[in-house]
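Review form for a predicted model. The reviewer records the input and the model, then writes brief findings.
Reviewer: anonymous (R2)
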Amino acid sequence: MATDSKDLATRLAKLGKADMIDLLLDLHGRHSDIDNYIDRYLLKNSPSELADSLRQSIRQLARSRRFIEYSASFSFAAQLQQLLSDIQGALLPDHPMLACEVIVEFIDSHDRILLRSDDSAGVVADVYQEATLLLISAIKVARTNQHFEDGEWLSRFDAWRQHDPYHFYLNMLKETRGAFSEEELRRLAWRYQQRLKSVPADRDEALKRQEAFQGLQGVSKALETPKLYEEALTLYTHQPHPQDMIDVARNYLDFLQPVEAIRILEKLQPAQKETLELLLSAYRQQNNETAEKEILNRLFTLEPSTENFQALLASTPKSEHQQMLNDAITKAERADNGTLAANLLLELNQPSKALNLLLRQGNQLQQYYYGDLLALAESFKESKVPLGAILCYRALLEDILNRAYSKAYLYAADYVQSLLELDQNCQDYAHLPNHSEYLHQLRQSHSNKKGFWSRVDGSVLLKGL
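Model under review:
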């Protein structure tokens, strides 16, 4: 059983000096991480030498030519993370300027390391992203200890950007408030504005324009000036994509400027779910209950889910609840999204209406997300409507077979089993073929799906065929 830290401290305190030396000598050489930790601990009173030790470790990692496979990327990221933690713990509190220099060298190694890494999970890049945030922290600590002329950190930033192929420094701009002075940030904004205005919008200059656009948006966040964020998009393109405008509106909301957000969102037609949700947030920031209810109505019409209905009900006086319930049932019956609407109708204790909705959907049910269909099948079971669950499982089964998705044949066979179990409780198939007829038709339509039929042939699943 491992010794806890308190007990360990007590026992170590009883060791003599010679024993402690023997212990450390015995540990040294067992693992490179332990060796580095001991070496750096001994240098804690020599910050320059400690910085050199950290630099040496960074350079050693950068010089290696070993390709980092995907499976090894996580442990390698942990190794980088430990090195970053050493910089943070040993240098940053008392020697922030030294920490800045070492962190910059750490970040500058990113291209050599990422080029020889399968970083599909993004864990190595995440450490470098964290390093930029640590750099910002080091600058802030340095500012508390000494005075810097306006423009000094801007000059340093320009030097860092000379080696920034993955734009880690560019991406950190949005977090630099308090690290860069307001004057430095405004000068950066002016620089990016001029570049966007002067650099022609052609393929040869696309990279410069993209960097200026990204930089101006980052600076706007640091300056907490969302108008500048919108200007960046206006200068970058004359035909912004609706998603870009949604991003601009969201930025206004982040800085509590709902009027500007509404100005943009109301122009986006037709209004999608994301647009309406942002409008709802904007009107809530304004405490505009009338507009809020109108948006909730639009959201429910667009997506008649239980969640949207409950939100609408909560904003409605109790005296109007029955009318709203009636309206909700009517809207759900006419809805395009069968799974959401049917689930709501079941929640509103309207199982026959929910079943009729699915019957009208027909083959359209196959387009819905399988998780939604499975959940709806369970809801129909709970409501004692076996035919509704059967419709869901048939849609899931047919979707797999129509796509010849062999990897899911195991699940398809499970759905056949579920259909058999439901058939025992289904007394009325309406206008649909019963279980035996359905499986017979399925056999005729998909006789070539050998992988599927091999899982069910000869079993009770095909009884009666």
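Findings: The chain has 26 helices and no strands.
Further findings: The longest helix spans residues 123-145.
Recommendation: see findings above.
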